[in-house]
Design brief:
388 residues
Length: 388
């Protein structure tokens, strides 16, 4: 038992350290714009580059069955090191917007060997308590997501290069910790040959499809909500100038509360079925989407309570869906299954973001976030099957 706890601590810590690469650019974006004379829309371009890199990476990793054919710990280690090197490239003073986009793209590409591979490593070590383990793992990613908002609150006086250097060092340490302390798990079943059709084969079973499509509905809502939390608070401040809210501080709190939600979901999965908890979380977050027009008419306290509930439930089901995907996948292609589901899920986040961004020009802002309800509704319909 002590050995398993130690392994889980290493995996979770390494996941947090390595996924800090994901948001390193966001944390110093204002400095990058000034240093390299970039335009203001560079934030969107550089952020999209990481997402597109991650999607491309997960697709290629899934097609080549990387996580199933090779040691996941080795894959994690090498991807952490290479990702750290591309991240360090940001510090080269001759960079242009094109070189920065390329660097961020490949950082995202090698994150495909960190986030889903980390879940594969956990699945290879934990079977009976996989939901609990993935709860800690996804919780670490949530903290990484919220971290740039905390940096903004602290207004650190360290040079921007130190942030980039630190995240690269963190990633290298995280990869090294996995290689040194986390061998291939006892539940790993190595795939003996390349299976190019595996990304299609995984969807042939109904329980897997149900879990995957539930996850896709969840992802439609998740990242767009996270992205627009500061926007929601800004709109509220504009309409309630007498009761201003600290946007950076509350963005951090509303997003980071999701880490507690993931851990609590993991513990709840020890008592109840993952599907049941996921349905409850998806239902509540879907209701929040539908009630979102009322946000701007609430007083400050009720607004923050509403957003905390939304921030809690919007991510609570994520480790549960990953658990269901892992449990309903063929053991020989479990890593491929987790990777391709991540690939499709993150692709949907871009479509969702662009849909809301497009709708911003045509509908009243207070009704904008009802669009996110599409995800939970379709996700709940996907979970109707009794076999998951």
């Amino acid at each position: 038992m002590k050995r398993k706890v130690f392994v889980l601590i290493i995996i979770v810590t390494a996941q947090f350290l390595c996924t800090s690469l994901w948001f390193a650019g966001n944390g110093v974006m204002s400095y990058l714009i000034e240093e390299f004379h970039l335009s203001e829309n560079s934030l969107a371009n550089l952020t999209s580059a990481v997402q597109l890199g991650f999607i491309s990476g997960t697709l290629i990793f899934a097609l080549l069955n990387i996580a199933d054919r090779f040691s996941p710990s080795l894959v994690f280690f090498f991807c952490a090191l290479i990702g750290a090197l591309f991240n360090l490239g940001i510090m080269v003073h001759s960079n242009t917007i094109i070189s920065l986009v390329i660097l961020r793209f490949f950082t995202g590409f090698f994150l495909a060997g960190i986030y889903p591979i980390g879940m594969k490593i956990a699945a290879d070590h934990f079977k009976k308590q996989l939901g609990k383990s993935l709860g800690f793992l996804v919780g670490a990613l949530v903290l990484g997501t919220a971290f740039p908002h905390l940096l903004s609150v602290l207004k650190t006086t360290f040079p921007w290069e130190s942030v980039i250097a630190s995240t690269s060092i963190f990633a290298a340490l995280g990869g090294g910790a996995i290689l040194a302390f986390v061998p291939d798990g006892p539940y790993r079943k190595k795939s003996s040959k390349l299976k190019l059709g595996a990304i299609i084969d995984v969807f042939k079973t109904k329980p897997f499809r149900s879990a995957a499509f539930g996850y896709f509905g969840h992802m439609w809502e998740l990242y767009t909500f996270w992205t627009f939390v500061p926007v929601i608070l800004k709109i509220y401040n504009e309409t309630h100038p007498n009761f201003p809210i600290n946007i950076s501080l509350w963005s951090f709190i509303i997003i980071s509360i999701g880490s507690i939600a993931c851990v609590s979901a993991g513990y709840l999965s020890l008592k109840w079925k993952e599907k049941r908890i996921a349905i409850i979380a998806l239902t509540i977050s879907g209701i929040c989407c539908l009630l979102s027009p009322s946000l701007f008419y609430l007083n400050k306290v009720w607004l923050l309570i509403f957003l905390l509930i939304w921030g809690y439930t919007v991510i609570m089901d994520s480790p549960l869906f990953s658990t269901l995907v892992a449990k309903n996948a063929d053991p020989e292609i479990k890593g491929t299954a987790l990777t391709i589901v991540n690939c499709i899920g993150f692709s949907l986040t871009i479509i969702s973001l662009q849909t809301v961004n497009f709708a911003l020009n045509y509908i009243n802002k207070e009704y904008l976030f009802t669009i996110l309800a599409i995800g939970p509704i379709l996700g709940l319909l996907a979970l109707k099957t009794k076999k998951v």
